[in-house]
Amino acid sequence: MARNSCHLPACFPAAALFLLLLLLAGDHLRLSAAGHDYHDALRKSILFFEGQRSGRLPTDQRVRWRKNSALHDGASAGVDLTGGYYDAGDNIKFGFPMAFTTTLLSWSVIDFGRNMGGGELGNAVRAVKWGTDYLLKATAHDGVVYVQVGDPLSDHNCWERPEDMDTLRTAYRIDANHPGSDVAGETAAALAAASIVFRSRNPAYSRLLLDRAIKVFEFADRHRGAYSSSLNYAVCPFYCDVNGYQDELLWGAAWLHKATRRREYREYIVRNEVVLRAGDSINEFGWDNKHAGINVLLSKEVLMGRANDLKQFQINADAFICSLLPGISHTQVQYSPGGLIFKAGGSNMQHVTSLSFLLLAYSNYLSHANHAVTCGDTSASPALLKRLARRQVDYILGDNPLRISYMVGYGPHYPQRIHHRASSLPSVDAHPARIACKAGSRYYMSPNPNPNILVGAVVGGPNSSDAFPDSRPYFQESEPTTYINAPLVGLLAYFSAHP
């Protein structure tokens, strides 16, 4: 993908700056400045993860309409793979997005945990641990990583509660003969990032996470390849690695460097910067593409004056910032008429929350270094980046043309018919009898609101024209995912402390 050259003066004319100011001011909308209860939204965004839990639920489970599910996962392979998260509205446990979710939850706690308050910080840490406990099980045997539980074709052929699930629970793995550097690299990143979260809270658990991260990264690097090639029939087209595995190796090394401070990981990054295409796709960040995240994460070292050999990553991060500013003529990042970041493909809110998280994180790094980003003849200050990130969060919470909150349970008007099996089917408490695979179809097609409110779930969101159908069959717009919420936790934490 061609690199964006937004550092050139001609790339940021005065008219573009005027459009940027209009978008941030909400010229066409009456924005509720400081009118959102960010702490309430934070609480709900973390609560959502309890609704996505798989396995045996703990006694302090707060989403009470969910019950135990998938208690025999891994049994067919002779391993224990219970626990973890369902990634979205289905009942599959996809390891690639689950690991990315865990990494971003950890990053949210690392950078913004101090803004959460004691209660929500504890809930966020528990959300991280629910993910890492599972990832430890998935990596318990050297040279093997279990990357998925459940057959997606049979699962997607049913509309049933996870508590009733009777579809195939095949356990899929990568190993030396069937490599998956992408999912293994992301898993290493998740374990390393989480080790920082638990360093002072639970030192023994932190050491376990870090030791495992090192082993998994070595496996990912030694046996290079994309898991889509090894497991195409199981992971595609659901979480097929389109972007390649190279970015996950750099991403894993970057988090191991942050967690260990070992020079070997820094040298690995510098040595492989060109080979692993560190400068590609600078304005992409999500479960499949880590480039913008790598650049922002490593830039902190450069801005603090500790790593001039990583200077290129800061140059890339600055270019990333310039590529997001509204009004620049390019094809990678667009804005809806209502001011929402929009990128082609499904589940657009994943781009909104991930890119906004990077805007906020980078603005903090810039602030501490007393630095601004130069985009042509314009200086993008840390305050400007924060305003742009806040604008995206406010859009999600209701400052948009439809006046709808895209977070379920927040505000008076939010999606009622989300594409989510457990939410849309009667709970076990309300309907104790089993609901078979096809018997759930009438609930899927029903125009009625979902009976169970999945509080905190942020759906895929509106289209490029700010229109939203609020209909289960429109899954790209109405399905929530864990990787939408994970970066939003950090954003809401910061804005709850800086309204």
From TrEMBL:
Signal peptide: 1-34
Domain of life the protein comes from: Eukaryota
Matching SUPFAM superfamilies: Six-hairpin glycosidases
Domain Glycoside hydrolase family residues, every copy: 38-492
One example of a Gene Ontology biological process annotation: cellulose catabolic process
Name of this chain's protein: Endoglucanase
Top-rank EC class of the record's enzyme: hydrolase
Active site, renumbered: 419, 470, 479
UniProt KW keywords: Carbohydrate metabolism, Cellulose degradation, Glycosidase, Hydrolase, Polysaccharide degradation, Signal
Lineage, opening ranks: Eukaryota, Viridiplantae, Streptophyta, Embryophyta, Tracheophyta
TM helices/strands, residue ranges: none
